[in-house]
Amino acid sequence: MKSFMTNQMPLFVWMLLIFWLSSIPRIPTIKVPIEMDKVAHVAIFFVLCWFSFRAFRYQFRFRRAREYALLLALILTALYGVTDEYHQRFVPGRTFDYFDMAADAAGALLFASAVQIKRGWKRHQEARQTASFGG
Fold first, then answer.
1. 70 found inside a domain
2. For residues 126 and 103, is the Cβ–Cβ distance under 8 A?
3. For the chain, what is the HEC assignment?
4. Residue 122, domain extent
5. What is the pTM assigned to this prediction?
6. What confidence tier does 131 reach under pLDDT thresholds 50, 70, 90?
7. Contact in structure between 93 and 26 (CB atoms under 8 Å)
8. Residue 24 in domain
9. Which of the four pLDDT bands, split at 50, 70 and 90, describes residue 42?
């Protein structure tokens, strides 16, 4: 139960938060440049991808899901961005926006890239340590 609460529950809570925010007809906001709106989408879906990755990586029922956690997180996050935009078509004052969908996917790709860079850096550090011990 502790694993679920720390690894899977944050994903569900974050998804519900996104859904709830998308359900608000006209979110009262300060008028911001369109670029800031896209940055917000990237950030929100970066976090969604992070929570998705943790949910897949630290579950113990499906071994393949652990092995492909990053890919599954990327796919889930991108699909959730699509469904989020589709959902907004039915909310008064909200619209379906391809650029928001692209920003959502960019957030997921940014997270996946960061994970891959970190993995590469770890391998590089381990190789350097192995080389220094061996030679």
1. yes
2. no
3. CHHHHHHHHHHHHHHHHHHHHHHCCCCCCCCCCHHHHHHHHHHHHHHHHHHHHHHHHCCCCCHHHHHCHHHHHHHHHHHHHHHHHHHHCCCCCCCCCHHHHHHHHHHHHHHHHHHHHHHHHHHHHHHHHHHHHHC
4. 2-19+33-134
5. 0.85
6. confident
7. yes
8. no
9. very high
* Amino acid sitting at position 33: P
Calculate ∠ Cα 71-72-73, nearest 5°.
90
What is the distance in angstroms between the CA of the first residue and the CA of the last residue of the chain? 47
Residue 28: inside a domain, yes or no? no
As a whole-number percent, the residues of the chain with pLDDT over 70 amount to 91
Give 35-43 contacts, CB < 8 A, sequence gap 24+.
37/100, 37/103, 38/99, 38/100, 38/103, 39/103, 41/81, 41/100, 41/103, 41/104, 41/106, 41/107, 42/103, 42/104, 42/106, 42/107, 42/110, 43/107
Q: How far apart (Å, rounded) are the C-alpha atoms in residues 59 and 63?
A: 8
Tokens, residue 23: 């359900």
Q: Are 77 and 107 in contact (CB under 8 A)?
A: yes
